[in-house]
Amino acid sequence: MKTVTIKDLARSLNLSTSTISRALRGSSEIGVETKKRVLELAQRLDYNPNPVALSLLSSQTNDIGVIVPEIANPFFAIVIAGIEDVAFAQGYHVVIYQSHEDYEREVLNVKHIYNRRKDGLLVSVSTSTKDYAHFKTIHERGFPIVFFDRICEEIDTHNVSVDDFEGAYKATEHLIKQGCERIAHVSGPAHLLISRRRLHGYRAALLDYGRPIQDDWVVAAAYNTTSALVATRGLLAKPERPDGIFASSDNIAIGCHSAITEAGLTMPDDIALVGFSDLPMAALLNPPLSSVAQPAFEMGRSAAELLINLIRNPREHSTSISNVLKTSLVVRKSSLRGTAVVKNDE
Fold it and tell me: Residue 133, CB half-sphere, CA atoms under 13 Å: how many?
């Protein structure tokens, strides 16, 4: 079906395209009768403005680019739902890109978003990203960027995260209170800020409670189950194996869970386990996984609000805003050495 254009309206009414354009915009330069004729014809022919042409005129597309590592990760799916909740209400469309934890793909996504004239970018960086030049370049050109969850310290812009330190501290403290003496940590990649913050929370809790800190009880894994499975097997093979494990994410914890089961050990009697994120899968494992819950939906909402404000009022944000959201500890059978299962904010 042929798309109706301004030229078609102008030809039908024997008017200039500029007159048609001004009439559609409600310009006071155009008479009431002419406006009425133009609008009636536009409605009858189902005329719709060309969004590309409008974006060239207004310098805005009302599109927001969002880059996440994996849409299949339930955490990011919930974050996206929060983003869309705010964006839709504010008249913006959300265009989703996946980096698949790949630096080169992330770079291409950023270029595509910038070159296609999206109004701004929301991003959680990939685990393989160590060079942030692709973000710095567009940020220096004034392109609005807001980081969430995995944020970039090298760029002075708005960001949204959770209190990773406090969440990790609570998880480790819980393991200590369950009687664990040798608590290991399966961390994420060390170059990511969330990994370092969670490692610091783990160490702080051990220090505060007088528990030993041993470097060989801290092992790094990518934020996926396969890498965590391999890392945990190494921990379990040690002569003095841990009796508690705090994992830096639920995906890592699921790998730990598999390794513990594979070794013929029980949770929590042989090893107590706590993850971070509280994915829907956590409650379905056997035994169900204790985890630090993150407000993913609220993170998405907060990030979208910051970006839209940045797009609409760029000069009002000389100081970057960092929104840090609270976590809560959800205790289940994987770590609770007792009969009751509780849900609390220890």
Answer: 3
Spatial contact of 137 and 107, defined as CB atoms under 8 Å apart? no
Q: Which domain holds residue 242?
A: 164-294
Q: Do 79 and 97 sit in the same domain of this protein? A: yes
Q: What's the total number of domains in the chain? A: 3
CA 6 to each of CA 1, 60, 211: distance values in angstroms, whole numbers, following the listed order:
16, 20, 74
Q: Would you say 206 and 212 are in contact if contact means Cβ atoms under 8 Å apart? A: yes
Residue 324 contacts residue 161 (beta carbons within 8 Å): yes
Within 224-295, strands assigned E span 244-247, 272-277, 290-293
pLDDT tens-digit series, residues 274-324 = 999 999 999 999 999 999 999 999 999 999 999 999 998 877 767 899 999
SS3 318: coil
Q: Point out the domain boundary residue: 274, 294, 314.
A: 294
Taken in order 142, 146, 151, 156, the sign of the CA dihedral is: positive
Domain assignment of residue 42, yes or no: yes
**How is residue 326 written in tokens?**
């609270």
Strand intervals (E) in the chain: 63-68, 93-98, 120-123, 145-148, 159-162, 183-187, 218-220, 244-247, 272-277, 290-293, 322-325, 328-330
Residue 341 lies in a domain: no
pLDDT digit string, tens, across residues 29-39: 888 899 889 88
Identify the CATH number of the domain in which residue 23 sits.
Answer: 1.10.260.40
Query: 302: how many CB neighbours lie within 10 A of its CB?
Result: 25
User: Are 145 and 135 contacting, i.e. CB atoms less than 8 angstroms apart?
Assistant: yes
Token pair for 288:
């169900």
With H, G, I as helix, E, B as strand and everything else as coil, classify residue 258. helix
Residue pair 308/94 in contact (Cβ under 8 Å)? The answer is no
Closest CA to 304 of 160, 189, 169, 137: 160
Residues 228 and 254 sit within 8 Å (Cβ to Cβ): yes
State yes or no: cis peptide before 239, omega within 30 of 0: no
Whether the model clears a pTM of 0.90, i.e. scores above it, the answer is no
Q: Are 74 and 180 contained in the same domain?
A: no
